[in-house]
Amino acid sequence: MQTDKKENNERQPVILFADDDVICLDVGVIILQKLGYIVLEARDGREAIEVFLNNQNEVDLVILDMKMPYNGGTTFYQLKKINANVIVLIASGYAKDQQIKEMMEHGCSGFIQKPFSINALSQKVRNILND
User: Measured between alpha carbons, how far is residue 10 from residues 15, 36, 62, 123 in Å?
Assistant: First the structure.
């Protein structure tokens, strides 16, 4: 049991970052890589589902933009259907609204307001992964 824990701690966490804004996606990926994470990218909700399906055993966290083409708002629920234990952090340029509150009630792990600072993202991701 001890060895399993140690191996998990040594493995770099894998984050799926999904955002349709190319600049936001690029900056987010660079930030997360600099923080020591392995990052998978998706440019819309459909791609996020596809990337997650192909890598679900490795993905530790999904950072999901709320407003994306192809299922932006429903991607969270689709991910939960694929794996009920998926850990999702919602990112949005809008204030926390009713839709986000409902996602939180259905097992979403957190919300981060865009644009976010490196420190805010780092702290939010660390808190979620260590929870």
Answer: 15, 11, 20, 19
